[in-house]
Amino acid sequence: MDLAGMGLSEKQLGELAAATGERGNQPAWTYSDIRTRLYPSAMAKAFPDRALSFKDLTESLLSMRPSPVMEDN
Question: Its domain of life (predicted)?
Answer without folding.
Answer: Bacteria
